[in-house]
Amino acid sequence: MLLHDRAQALAIAPLWRLGFRPFFLGGAVFAVLALGLWLTALQGWLGAWQPVGGSLAWHRHELPFGFGVAIIAGFLLTAVQNWTGRPGLAGRPLAALFGLWLAARLAWLGGAPLPLLLALQLPFLPLLALLLGRQLWAARQRRNYPIVGVLLALAACEYLLLQGLALGDEALQRRGALTGLWLIGSLVGLIGGRVIPFFTQRGQGKAQATTSQPRLDLLVLLLSLLIAALLAAGLGLQPRPWLAVPLLALALLHGLRLRRWYAPGIWRVPLLWSLHLAYAWLALAALGLALWHLGLQPQASLGYHALAVGAVGGMILAMLARVSLGHTGRPLQPAPAMTWAFASLQLAALLRVLLAPWLPAAGLWLSGACWLLGFALFLRHYAGLFCQPRVDGQPG
């Protein structure tokens, strides 16, 4: 159901009035639950219990396609309303879509038969792409068509991963998981390229945002998608020196964008420096993977975890904190504890990349604890907002 009038909107329970509410809340809760379960599984504390496919397959899938996709869904279902001027998904249809996401999470954890898991998991991303695409098409919002393409590409990656799970093919699972993670990083770059300069200029009290550079933005997106295609083809599972070339180029382009957006005053505004630091991890992830392909660092996982924890996790937490305030009608002034939450996510990435290779047990546990602290602080200060009406009395 699409909302058409104010009275109809206000009659809906606040949690189901706009996509960011259930998906941000559910995604943040899952961020804590999933990392906690993964850490305990690594220690063998879960006994005979195993999720579908084992704990490693579950972890590979649930970071990009459980946690990441939930936040993407919440953000896009909310943003498309602003992009198109058309009402967003709400009410029972929104509850049904969220229920599908939640049912797939429970099926993984409950050891459901694989056919049931596939039936619950595979439709979500195509359905989200359809919902978004219909809104964009009706408003002829061509600028945002590539986002629908990325969602469909994510769906294809998930199919690869789940096909690998069904066939017991480890390499196919890794291809799907790593390409999916990279595509989510590409979305971080695409959306970050729009919101970071705008938020930075607004946060500095300036009326005009930094002039966009469409060619640079397009080049970053195309290069990111090229690397994703190479990963999907299986060319990123072993070191290949020639792959360092596009990765180094992408790291440089990310750095150029970040330099262009930078303003010294960001360090006084947690909602700004958290975004800038998260985006910086995109460049570091590409650089780390380039060094791995050149044989100059020993583990590809360092680059991928820089992407997963630093860029994706850091950007998600920063965007959750800002978007949730704005769309509930509150001032953009997060609780002081959120400064510690943002810092915890940055520390989680540093520990996972710098300490875990040398002290695996300590590095993983400390990094995981920082991740858990960051999202737990977010839930402590934001969870109630999603179930309350906007303070300005507006729908949404």
Automatic annotation (TrEMBL):
InterPro entries linked: NnrS
Organism the protein comes from: Pseudomonas benzenivorans
Annotated protein name in UniProt: NnrS family protein
Lineage top rank: taxon: Bacteria
Coiled-coil segments: none
Keywords, in A-Z order: Membrane, Transmembrane, Transmembrane helix
Transmembrane annotation, as ranges: 23-45, 65-83, 114-133, 145-165, 177-196, 216-235, 241-258, 270-292, 304-325, 337-355, 361-379
Pfam family, one: NnrS
